[in-house]
Design a protein that fits this description.
- The chain has 143 residues and is α/β, with parallel strands linked by helices.
- The chain folds into 2 domains: 56 residues, no CATH class; 79 residues, D-Maltodextrin-Binding Protein, domain 2 (3-Layer(aba) Sandwich), CATH 3.40.190.
- The protein contains 6 helices and 4 strands, in the order αααβαβαβαβ.
- The chain has a 4-stranded mixed beta sheet with strand order 1-4-2-3, with helices on both faces.
- The protein is elongated and about 60 Å long.
- 20% of the residues are buried.
C-alpha cells in the first residue's frame, strides 16, 4: 500500500485517472459529495458518478462552541443572546464548511440573525474564538 499525501483536488484527479482495477482507493470526507455539488458552480468531477463508494469509515459530530466570556452555555443561551442583541456572529472553518451550513440551518430554523464569519480553516477560527474575537464558533469535532 502506498500513501500519497496530495491536496484533495490532486487526490481526486489521481484516483479518477487510475485504472478501475480495485488497486487505487481514495479516502475522503463527505464534503465533496454532500456539500460540493450544491455550493460550487463548477466541480472538477462528478463525485457520485466518478467514483464507486464502498464504505463509510466514520462520523464526526458538529459542535457549537462559545467563548466563556460570552456567557453562552447552551443553545438556548445562544438563541436568547441573538434575539436580545438582534444579531450574533458565528465563525466556521470557511464558506460551505459543515460549520457554515449548520449555522445557516440554525439561523433559518430559529429565525435568528446569525452572521457568518468565514475563516480559512478550523484552527484560525478556534484561535479567534478563544481570544474573544468571535463569541461563537461552529465546527466538526475531530480526533
Amino acid at each position: 500500500m502506498t500513501h500519497l499525501p496530495l491536496p484533495p483536488s490532486r487526490t481526486r484527479r489521481f484516483a479518477l485517472q487510475s485504472p478501475a482495477d480495485g488497486y487505487t482507493l481514495m479516502l475522503s470526507n463527505s464534503t465533496p459529495v454532500s456539500i460540493g455539488p450544491f455550493a460550487l458552480d463548477k466541480l472538477p468531477c462528478d463525485p457520485v458518478e466518478g467514483f464507486t463508494h464502498i464504505a463509510s469509515v466514520g462520523a464526526a459530530p458538529c459542535v457549537v462552541m462559545a467563548n466563556p466570556a460570552a456567557g453562552l452555555r447552551t443553545l438556548t443561551d445562544v438563541e436568547a443572546q441573538a434575539r436580545k442583541l438582534g444579531r450574533l456572529d458565528f465563525g466556521s472553518g470557511g464558506p460551505a464548511s459543515i460549520g457554515h451550513i449548520y449555522g445557516e440551518l440554525m439561523k433559518k430554523e430559529l429565525g435568528l440573525n446569525l452572521v457568518h464569519v468565514p475563516y480559512r480553516g478550523g484552527a484560525p477560527m478556534t484561535t479567534d474564538l478563544i481570544s474573544g474575537v468571535i463569541p461563537v464558533g461552529i465546527d466538526v469535532l475531530t480526533t
